[in-house]
Amino acid sequence: LWIYHIVEPEVVELIGSSWDWAGLFRMDAKSGKLYAARNDSLFVLDYSNPESIEQVGVYSSNFGNVRNIKATDENAFLTTFNETSSLLEVLDITDATNPALLSDLDLEATGRDLFIPATDSSKLFVAYTKGEADNGISIWDITDPENMSAVSDIKTQAVPITIWVEDTLVYAGSNQGFENWFLEQFSISNID
Predict the structure, then answer these.
(1) Does the first or last residue of the chain, that is N or C, have fewer Cβ atoms within 10 Å of its Cβ?
(2) What is the pLDDT of residues 111-128, one digit of tens each?
(3) What single string gives the DSSP state of each residue in 26-92?
């Protein structure tokens, strides 16, 4: 794990690192904590001193490995997967020393990426694939993380690898094999 201070785009300074955290797969930072996945575990790390990164808490999924993480001030949203399926797990992270499972949802697909817009933290976007011809982005109302509800579904041309939401637009980077890559844009101005 390496921590950089980006003074300006052309001035990047390494300010801390730790080999103790090698092999982290995904990360998200929120409210002074770093949420980092390795295998089936989500680690809560304090990086306030970049030269001495400390573990604050840990959550281990009983379902499978953690693929993606998105954190809010109170919750962490994870896609986890095993050999046959994928779950969306929602954790209560108000006590960073003891992240606790609040709810889970069978995605009935393989979760690929997660996004919570800064302008609307009541929505969670989940990129998924169900097969070669069934790929997309599901949109969830996460106002009540224990009772999430589906809002809408967007179909993509191929397997979405990464998503980004800006105002009323969703961007999806997707691919079919190694040759065919797509960048798609969708309007979500009327999803509510």
Answers:
(1) C
(2) 889 999 988 899 999 999
(3) EEEEETTEEEEEETTEEEEEE-SSTTS-EEEEEEE-SS-EEEEEEE-SSEEEEEEE-SS-EEEEEEE
